[in-house]
Amino acid sequence: MTIPGSKGEILTNEICKVCTVRSVALFQDLDLEVFNKFHSAIREVEISKGDHLYTIGDPGERVFTIRQGIVKLVQYLPDGTQRIVRLLKQGDLAGIEATTGSTYQHDAIALTSVDTCAIPVKTVEMLAAEQPQLHRTLLTKWQDALSTSDSWLTRLSTGPSRYRVIRLLIWLAENTSEKAFYLPGREDIGNMLALTTETVSRTIADLRRDGLIELVRSDFARADLRKLKAIVKDATD
Amino acid sequence: MTIPGSKGEILTNEICKVCTVRSVALFQDLDLEVFNKFHSAIREVEISKGDHLYTIGDPGERVFTIRQGIVKLVQYLPDGTQRIVRLLKQGDLAGIEATTGSTYQHDAIALTSVDTCAIPVKTVEMLAAEQPQLHRTLLTKWQDALSTSDSWLTRLSTGPSRYRVIRLLIWLAENTSEKAFYLPGREDIGNMLALTTETVSRTIADLRRDGLIELVRSDFARADLRKLKAIVKDATD
DNA sequence: CGTGTGCTTGACAAGTTTCAATAGACGTGG
DNA sequence: CCACGTCTATTGAAACTTGTCAAGCACACG
After folding, report:
1. B74-101: per-residue pLDDT in tens?
2. What is the pTM of this model?
3. Which residues are paired to B63 by β-bridges?
4. Residue B59: is its pLDDT beyond 90?
5. What does the alpha-carbon distance between residue B203 and residue B228 come to, in Å, rounded to a whole number?
6. Structure confidence at residue B31 (pLDDT)
7. Residues in CB range of B160: below 8 A, 6 or more apart
8. Which residues interact with strand D by a CB < 7 Å criterion?
9. What is the pLDDT of residue A3?
10. Lower CB density within 10 Å: C or N end of chain B?
């Protein structure tokens, strides 16, 4: 179990068995028996807001299952401009490129405090050798990443600022179980949508004036999802 | 061999053995013996400019290795706006999501005349069962797709129109062996860069006036790669 | 109780879209 | 072989959106 208040890496012992995200994560249908042979290599890693989970260019030695919190994946242009290419949430896999022997392709930075399981790539390989369905789970994770990426291009990088912000808010709201959802800093939002912080700030202020969202705190908001979806003509499930 | 002038699906016979893209494609390190057991299921599919290779939402029954030509992957917003999320070229795999049992996630449309090998997903599975390294190749293809996608977000959807167009031109030029490279229609370029056809047209006209590119035909161009890279501060290998 | 950091707002400049008109390329049929 | 229609590319002018620069505000932290 986690030692309350602790930071950094902790040996997992029984934690995996009761893991709240196992059903959606990497080991979703793994034999407990097989799993027990290897899970001693797995570490729990907790980092605070702003910390790096890993850094672009580093040798990819571990993948991370996100247990709690939100992580941004950042890439940079030669001039230093940064672009957030994806957000990872509970159940997502960070550093998946490590499984092909590649170096990390992004800076992975915590937007909130983040709780992960760090799994050495070697462990993944050994597990996969005994349990081929892990391959299938991994493929699914690749597909998730790619389809998120496509969606960021289609929905978050297309159209006027108002629509982009709204589509991001919908995503944020729908990926939270609470009524209020985490609202990233204006600069981060800008780096997700290819807008400046000023434009984002103005757009969010407009949405508040129009009664479409309501700030609970500067970084938590509630949204009228139905109205937001109507504006961008999203399916109103 | 291909029957000259023919269209549509053709049974492959000896074609795979002499395939010019096998070294970069799906069967790059497959045992010829194993391969021969299955390759009768593989069809050569040729389509002309503007034709669909597959359509979004269709059940994904085959993956396609691109042997020749360029394919665009298109997604749509609810209002009908389209966005091109990737271009596929020689050696790339189209419809890779079919390997996870998913439906196709895009419209795949030929920008030029296109020559592919269509491989049933079932064949891929059978081959993978006998030759596990195929899993690894597939993972690499997923990674390629994802890293292209990230790059489209970072480099093609960020910054002013001039930079986006230049970065696209660099990509097009570097993914061609000829001196002149295929230049897509202005509307397609717009849908790749989230710009209007008019803006793209003006930007390309500017680049021509500045002597940075030269049109061989309306859809073929030569570029001064060194200068273009200097402008966007790309590595000048 | 200052100081820093991030958010907001304003005014103006720059960039992009929109609407409209023209020019060019291409294929078809007279 | 040329006229015609169609489709794409180009260009102009005006409207609009977004970026830039600058200042003020609010909240958290030391």
Report:
1. 999 999 999 999 999 999 999 999 999 9
2. 0.92
3. B119
4. yes
5. 13
6. 78
7. none
8. A 160-162, 194-196, 198-199, 218; B 185-187, 197-198, 201-202, 204-205, 215, 218-219
9. 42
10. C
Residue with tokens 């966005």: B83
The residue count of chain B comes to 237
Q: Provide mean pLDDT across the span B59-68.
A: 95
Distance CA A111, CA A51 (A): 8
B119: closest CA among B86, B96, B90, B88? B96
Angle among Cα B125, B129, B134 to the nearest 5 degrees reads 75
Checking if the pLDDT of A17 tops 70, the result is no
* Cα distances (angstroms) measured from residue A28 to each of A32, A125, A133, A155, B217: 10, 16, 10, 30, 54
Strand blocks (E) in A27-127: 43-47, 52-54, 62-68, 71-76, 82-88, 93-94, 107-110, 114-120
When CB atoms are compared, the residue of B77, B100, B152 closest to A143 is B100
pLDDT reported for residue A88: 97
Spatial separation of the C-alpha atoms in residues A68 and A56, rounded to whole Å: 22
